[in-house]
Design goal:
This protein has eleven helices and 16 strands. With 374 residues, the chain is of the alpha/beta class. The chain has two domains: 159 residues; 179 residues, 2-Layer Sandwich (Dihydrodipicolinate Reductase, domain 2), CATH 3.30.360.
């Protein structure tokens, strides 16, 4: 959310002195008591689709709510028939929900495809020195040739969203190839957004006996919110990540994928027996797009686990039964990972490990065309 304490500068030609002048005016406003100014790091954002730009703007609001930073927001346009390069400078507020109102600089760069080569020169001049540089990439970083390669030498971490990929399987293959080549920390937003469910699964299957039930899994059903929005088009991504994490962890080998009406069924061959995974879209407009609603697991020896969200609460209900027993249901915490400190911790501080690499490998073997078939 922009706060019009300073009017934006917009030009068709790059005027570096004008940008510095506007940033200095922001400093003067802070000294005059119009909001203290602070900056913990440089956040450089890139997107070239209008729908992704809107999503990234929402994400920036969540970040600013906890961390003041200098924002350099690059908005490319690969479809424009005209050539343009525009720069806007404004002040935005960090700590809005806490009422702190810390002021931050925001530089927005709008450029047509042919002008993107000019962007790195502007960025280099306006990063706050001696502070970390984080990249938030709303498009596939390995397909962007003008800006991302230049910034790799400066950045501490790149945060990307596999939602930008039209072909998630191909994206996972590219990530496997390029992950080790990146000389920085990497975080996948969809991986971060299933961290709460990965934690819940770890809490439910917390003993050798229950862990054995996961090894003996013969079927799994994952329900997720499929209500599409203007900013995202792949609601199945998080469900694919969750099942891919389990498939990779237990060495399930992909066999085939089928579509039955709205549901998609993935067939695996486990170390001892076949495993069937069903991904079932549900209409849950009260939840974020792609949010996991429930996880249901049945084992070869007829144990049954149902983990489902509690309406309106940041909790899940856990029901465990077998042919002979039915345990008392219990509740576990399910933090809201879409914003707040939990989300910030995931995308800025946690690292990707072997489980993520196994998940990429598992998803990359699946023919995901079934999700696009009507």
């Amino acid at each position: 959310m922009e706060v019009n304490l300073i009017m934006a500068v917009q030009t068709t030609d790059l005027q570096i002195p004008n940008i510095e002048k506007e940033l200095n005016r922001g400093d003067d406003a802070s000294k005059a008591g119009k909001g203290a100014k602070a900056c913990l790091f440089n956040l450089i954002i890139y997107g070239h689709e209008e729908r992704r730009v809107k999503y990234l703007e929402e994400l920036v609001e969540s970040i600013l709510d906890k961390f003041p930073c200098r924002i350099i927001f690059i908005q490319g346009n690969k479809e424009s028939a005209s050539s343009y390069f525009r720069v806007k400078v404004s002040r935005v507020l960090s700590g809005q929900t806490s009422g702190a109102g810390v002021a931050c600089d925001q530089i927005v760069i709008e450029a047509s495809q042919d002008q993107l080569v000019r962007v790195p020169f502007l960025i280099n001049a306006h990063m706050v020195p001696d502070l970390p540089v984080y990249l938030l990439w709303g498009q596939n970083p390995f397909e962007e040739r003008e800006i991302f390669p230049y910034l790799q030498g400066y950045a501490k971490r790149v945060i990307f969203d596999s939602e930008c990929a039209d072909d998630l399987g191909l994206f996972c293959k590219e990530m496997q190839t390029n992950l080790e080549a990146l000389k920085m920390d990497v975080m996948d937003i969809n991986w971060a957004l299933v961290s709460n469910w990965r934690d819940v699964v770890g809490e439910v299957f917390d003993s050798p006996d229950k862990l054995q039930h996961l090894y003996d899994c013969k079927s799994m059903i994952i329900q997720y919110n499929s209500c599409k929005t203007d900013t995202a088009l792949h609601p199945e991504a998080r469900a694919l990540y969750l099942q891919g994490w389990l498939a990779g962890s237990f060495n399930w080998q992909y066999k085939k994928i089928e579509r039955f009406h709205d549901d998609v069924v993935i067939s695996y061959l486990g170390p001892k027996h076949p495993v069937i995974v069903g991904l079932s879209p549900q209409h849950a407009p009260e939840l974020p797009l792609g949010a996991i609603i429930s996880l249901e697991i049945t084992t070869t020896d007829h144990h049954h686990y149902l983990i489902s969200r509690k309406n309106g609460l940041q909790q899940v209900d856990v029901h465990i039964s077998s042919q002979d027993t039915c345990e008392l249901p219990f509740a576990l915490s399910l933090p809201n990972i879409h914003k707040g400190l939990s989300f910030m911790r995931e995308i800025f501080f946690n690292t990707l490990g072997d489980h993520y690499r196994q998940t990429l490998k598992s998803i990359s073997t699946i023919n995901l065309q079934a999700f696009t078939e009507e």
